[in-house]
Task: structure prediction
Amino acid sequence: MKKIFEVARWEYIEKIKTKTFIISLILTPAILILFSITPTFLTQQEITHTKTIGIVDTSGLYIKGMRDKLSEYTIEDNQPNYIVINRTLKNRSLNDLKKSADKDVINEKIEGYLLIENAGTDSVSISYRSKSLGNLKDVNKFETAFNEIRIKLKFDKENVRPYLLDYISQSVELNQIKIEESGKETENDFLLTFFSSFVFIMLLMMMILYSGGMLIRSLVEEKSNRIIEILISSCTPNELLSGKILGLSALGLTQIFIWIVIGISLASASVVPLEAFSNVLPILIYFILGFVFYTSLFVGIGSVVTSEQEAQQITTYLSLLLVLPIIFVLPALENPDAFYIKILSYIPFTLPSFMMLRLNISPVPMWEILSTILIMIISIYLMIDFSGKIFRIGILSYGKRPTLKELSQWLKEK
Amino acid sequence: MLVVENLRKEYKNVVAVDNISFKVEEGRIFGILGPNGAGKTTTIRTVLNIIKPDSGQITFKGKPITNEFFNIIGYLPEERGLYRKSKVIDVIQYFAGLKNMPRKKAYSKAKYWLQKLEIEQYIDKRIEELSKGNQQKIQFIISVIHNPKLLILDEPFTGFDPISQTLIKEMILSFITSGKIIILSTHQMETVEKLCPDILLMNKGKEVYKGTLNNLKRNFGVNTVKIAFEGDAGFIGFLPEVKNIDRYSNYAEVQLNENVDPSEFLKILVDKIRIKHFSLLEPTLNKIFIDVIKQIKAQ
Result:
């Protein structure tokens, strides 16, 4: 036992001092935050300048209404969001009007213009013509304004009472409420759920890949330097293996701990909503179990590898296995009770990420949580045993990579 | 005493070690010799309990070698290497810790040894900053820091300059008086001639010779004399006692047939020519080694 701790201590201290560890510690969450926050941040940014918009409507029915509606929108300092210019000159054909308006757009006299055709009929249409495709928000505003006026015109024509117009222009949004076991209810946001599931799975994946790669590299170094011979003339292969797993797991925990501290401080600074941390305890358990499971696998595989290149190859293959749950995040969000999601959340290789996913989407019964945790613990035990058998012989075989047949022989050896 | 009996280890159709037995007493240095692939490393690994033999027994002071012996074994593997990015003192303390040495004691012992090998100024340097020879010294320290009772050195001198070689040799000799059992595997014959009174010569997993070095020389040593003379020595080549002659103008190296006493041979010579010098040539271990291996290959 003492020797296991000695190995673990060495692995932990030597690895925590490396530059790559410090870089990954900061870089991993930084990348994740960058990827998840930047797009929302950018789209939510306030519009800072007034846009000049043209309007072409040969019937003249829509011009005043559109101008009134769009001038209701303001930006900072009460400046109008849009200035609407009438580009409909009298006695000109539609084609001519289009040509001259297009020219203005190209010359940047106007941002773009709204072209209304067949006004007054039921087949009225509107298009927005500009150099670049319109900002989603602008387009929404134009659409709403246009449709309100279109209905109003129709109502006026048919003598419908005007107050009905207000009634139909209001729509009721559907609220999604997630019911938790404890009886408390949280308003659920699809994006938030996606975001937090995605973040946890990505974190697990990146951590496993990073520390697995590190583990394999250090095993390759120990083998090529024959340090391994001194090591196993000092302790048993099993002690060495357990020490390595323990040391790396401690390293992983340190990483998680620091990330949680970062996460909580971000939450208290309300950059990340606190709801992202509900369910954090079971998720943490799956996270750690998943990490230990994969670390044990990497130790076994790493002992067979004989060169840096091979190590890289194998890490790549394993990373594909780890990416798998990411593909399923969206379908699982749409249908969390799908049969294949359940199945995948019981297979040790995918169990941790799928359980993390399921916990985020819908309440998971306690018996499922307990049984999957039990499955994970048993799998870790079996994986350590499996890796141990390969490790024992693998670390002493140099040169050629063993064939599958040889590997199965190693597994049978007592 | 370390006793190895009828050791056998087979790898996929290759018998790496075939029925090897030997004993090493406290305070003796035992040399294992042989060409590449002779089975030296496999023998050492089984003694270290790194691999399990297919059959045979290894006992240390009457007890079979088990994992309990880890802490009293010191091992210097043939191929050298350490954690390049780590500090000298950290690496030494780690390996000492694996031998159950308390960290504080390991630190003071490390200082002592670094001083003794004249590299104490590197204590806080990274391994990769050290020269190759100095890295080897660190590795030597790692193999002896926990004062092992059984010390196994695989080619301990390769890569050292002559000054360091002498330094290491003195260390090894000092272990004799402290009663360690030392096994030295090498193909450097000079080392063995200087250090090992007992040797085991191996080839292709089999024992070729086992015993004292002196006996080996007597058994395998060719009966060669060197003479310096005046006069016509052409007749020597035709004498029935002579197996082979290497003749120059006024001296010759003569290989005699077995069972010919060199002093009887001298008697024949003195009657015919004037002898200015007569001496027995002692064969070097190197020559024996090559001859024996050749002999076996020819069979």
